[in-house]
Design brief:
By secondary structure, chain A is mainly α. Chain A contains 11 helices and no strands. Chain A is globular. Chain B is mainly alpha-helical. The chains are: A mainly alpha, B mainly alpha.
């Protein structure tokens, strides 16, 4: 009897330790970035584009990358919404749940969700070569859109399933067409749409591999879709590989800006999700 | 009345088209990558490509063996670290933790999923690499830069924590309550119930979660690229550098155009990644969906 209790206590202690270790990683990561980034953070980083010798340690900032990231993630999020809202509404309102096509669709989006961003990047790049599009803001938006569609569809799908089935039946029973029912649904899932936007936007801002060869890189803020655009994560990556300490420090500062940005999004998403449940 | 039906039908068709387009993305990606990889597949057999370790693109030699081994090492290390930790964490959160603690820990773990890969990379370079170099490696080998498959594996392990924890918690929650109660009422302790009843019942789900985590780890690019050294030689110990496939793709994409077949070779690696991850995802999703249906 003692042995059984001891075994349970031992494993329970192990579990508490594991939980603490897993959770501690979050603070370890954020802590590291804050400690390394804060000394190099200054207003120029956020408000200026790089000067000529920025990558050799001279003055300037990362505004081009910040704006580039916002453009790419923003553009992709808008296009992603235009595609994924109709898709999830179709799958849930127009189709019956047990429909074979619906099942195939669910599996496809689950699978697409798992495709790594570097593969999306490679595919989008091939597509761009085929269409004659050069590495540009447009290319970056295409790649990130592909990346976030499955995220959005899956999030929306989860939200749509929380709408009570009786609502659908009641609306249909009143003689509404499926499209009119869909409009009722869209109103119901509005907070969920916001969650999907935040999730997709956060992923879009943070991703490197998809934009690495599709968006290019530039020291200027792009003014048209054909111009190459810098992104924040790629700027972090480039600066960190520099041998100059000052530039490396700026990599940490850029990483800090990115982290703060993402954390705000993540916290907002968590609050929204909690509210919904 | 009629116009409403027409509208309904038209919008329905439009949505169906979008849905079909989005779903066919799976096939489009596969076909697209295959077409671009074809030149190298015409010249060399797949077996030759994956078994040769000669990587000399200038001479037209494309052996993927070192990159495949790099990927396997890094992924293997990540799973070995992450799986036990995440299993214990998930069991604790589902079975032992008070609701309030669960409400704190689960969001914290999930937050890890939101952190961008490049941040993991920066953390790896600044935190994990020096630890491996100064405190871990010297006990085992003479010299190490710290940029090793071990560092890559550790960073990857942290990256797959949220995925593993969230799926395993869900899987454990699907184990029927009656089963637990039956076991407890027969005099088993809580831990014995978990060990002998729940874990057995949850085995397919845990397997599926692991496979998903492996596929996630396979495809991770930037973070791994930043910490694992990128030397195209198959690693022989955890303190050797490695060069996983996604890192190969990311590092060479820009400059490949001028060398014959290089482009096709890189596309082949993208295709290989895509197919492996596709299969892994399908298997685990089918298992997970089945579990969900059975317990719904």
């Amino acid at each position: 009897m003692r042995r059984r209790k001891l075994e349970e206590m031992f494993f329970k202690a192990l579990m508490v330790l594991s939980t603490l270790a897993v959770s501690a990683c979050l603070f370890l990561i954020i802590g590291t970035i804050v400690v390394k980034g804060v000394p190099y953070l200054n207003w120029d980083m956020i408000s200026k584009i790089p000067d000529g010798g920025y990558y050799f340690g001279r003055s300037g900032g990362m505004l081009n990358a910040i704006v580039g990231s916002l453009y790419i993630a923003g553009g992709a999020t808008i296009i992603g919404l235009l595609i994924s809202i109709p898709v999830s509404i179709y799958l849930n309102v127009y189709l019956k749940k047990s429909n074979a096509f619906g099942k195939l669709a669910k599996l496809s989006f689950d699978v697409l969700f798992g495709v790594p961003s570097i593969v999306y990047g490679a595919f989008a790049f091939s597509l761009m070569v085929y269409l004659g599009v050069r590495a540009s803001l447009l290319g970056g938006i295409i790649a990130v859109t592909l990346l976030i569609i499955p995220i959005m569809v899956r999030t929306l799908d989860e939200v749509v399933t929380t709408v009570p089935k009786e609502l659908k039946e009641a609306v249909l029973a009143l003689g509404a067409t499926r499209w009119e029912t869909a409009k009722v649904y869209i109103r119901q899932i509005r907070p969920g749409i916001l969650t999907a936007i935040l999730l997709a936007f956060g992923r879009g801002v943070g991703d490197v591999a998809a934009v690495m060869f599709t968006a290019g890189f530039s020291d200027h803020i792009p003014v048209s879709l054909n111009e190459p655009a810098a992104t924040l994560p790629l700027a972090v990556f480039f600066q960190l590989s520099s041998p100059i300490p000052e530039v490396q420090g700026r990599a940490y500062a850029s990483a800090l800006i990115l982290t703060i940005f993402i954390l705000i999004i993540v916290v907002l998403t968590t609050i929204l999700t909690k509210k919904r449940n | 009345m009629n116009i409403r039906l027409v509208k309904d039908k038209a919008i329905g068709t439009g949505m169906l088209t979008l849905a079909i387009l989005a779903i066919s993305l799976v096939f489009l990606i596969g076909i697209g990558l295959y077409l671009r990889a074809q030149p190298i597949l015409d010249k060399h057999s797949i077996w030759e490509l994956i078994s040769s370790s000669a990587w000399r693109p200038m001479k037209g030699e494309f052996g993927f063996y070192p990159f495949i081994m790099g990927t396997l090492w890094v992924t293997g290390i990540a799973i070995i670290i992450a799986l036990p930790l995440c299993l214990l964490t998930a069991i604790y959160l589902v079975e032992y933790a008070p609701v309030r603690l669960k409400g704190i820990f689960l969001p914290i773990v999930n937050m890890l999923a939101g952190i961008p890969p490049v941040i993991y990379g920066v953390w790896g370079v600044f935190f994990i690499v020096p630890i491996v170099q100064q405190y871990v490696a010297p006990h085992f080998v003479e010299f190490s830069t710290g940029f090793t498959v071990l560092s890559g594996g550790v960073v990857l392990a942290v990256m797959i924590f949220p995925l593993l924890v969230s799926i395993v918690t869900e899987v454990l929650a699907t184990v029927p309550k009656e089963l637990k109660e039956a076991s407890l009422s027969l005099g088993a302790t809580k831990w014995e119930t978990i060990k002998k009843v729940m874990l057995k019942k949850a085995r397919p789900g845990i397997f599926a979660a692991t496979v998903l985590a492996i596929s996630r780890a396979f495809g991770e690019t930037i973070a791994v690229l930043m910490v694992c050294g990128n030397v195209p030689i198959a690693p022989r110990s955890v303190f050797d550098p490695g060069y996983p496939l996604p890192a190969l793709l990311a590092n060479n994409f820009g400059e490949m155009m001028s060398i014959p077949l290089y482009d096709a070779a890189l596309m082949f690696s993208a295709l290989a990644l895509f197919i492996i991850i596709l299969l892994f995802n399908m298997v685990s999703r089918l298992i997970l969906n089945k579990l969900e249906v059975r317990n719904a």
